[in-house]
Amino acid sequence: MKNITFSLSLIVTTSLMFTACGGDVEPPHRNPSQQQFTQPPQAISLPLKNPSFEQSDQYLEGWGFSQHAGEQAYAVSIDTADSTDGKNSYRIERKLVQAWGMIYQWLPLDNATGKSIILTAMIKSENLGPDGFDINLVFRKANRKVIGKIGTEAITGTNNWQRIVVTGVIPADTAHLQITAVLNDAGTAWLDDVRVSITDEN
């Protein structure tokens, strides 16, 4: 089945050295203010575009959207009434049966082999099926071939805002980094305050 990419301004995997902090997906119904993330002192933040979806009205500047195939099956929007960082968050809801729909962003990632990488974000969910929603870092060669991936386990069911943290090691030959936030089942998911950083510390 071919993949179909929708070029919307609206617009957001091969396994490797994987350290997903499974216990880091915190229990639901906690106040987001109690879930502040402290970046390691020597970490360098990567220049994500529009990481908290503030540079948007109903168009997700800096992000792309793609789904598996067929007619558009997802309602993708900016939520101006529910967020954790600023005024906006990203919202995706599956309207038709479809394997997956995602937003994504690309970043160059040269000369970073062996460094530690940290992904953190705030996620909320409503009535997600068992395949749920996940957010990932996909490592690619210069020709964009996938050479590795780290990411969360599927977030399922209904959860208030919770912070996820995923860490891993950047593999050799990485030239591009792709951040993906993927809805794999029925339901609705929200995303906010996405951050990626690298550090020499393991």
The proportion of residues in beta strands is over 45%
Q: What is the tally of beta strands?
A: 12
Structural class: mainly beta
What is the N-to-C succession of helices and strands?
EEEEEEEEEEEE
Sheet with the most strands, sense and barrel status: 12 strands, antiparallel
Walkthrough of the structure:
- 0% of the residues lie in helices and 49% in strands.
- With 202 residues, it is mostly beta strands.
- Strands 1, 2, 3, 4, 5, 6, 7, 8, 9, 10, 11 and 12 form a twelve-stranded antiparallel sheet that branches.
- β8 and β9 form a beta hairpin.
- The N terminus is likely disordered.
Question: Which key phrases capture this entry?
Answer:
twelve-stranded antiparallel β-sheet, 202 residues, mainly beta, globular, 49% strand, single chain
What's the gist of this structure?
This protein has strands spanning 4-6, 18-20, 44-45, 64-67, 74-79, 89-94, 101-108, 116-140, 146-151, 155-169, 176-183, 188-199. It is mostly beta strands and 202 residues long.
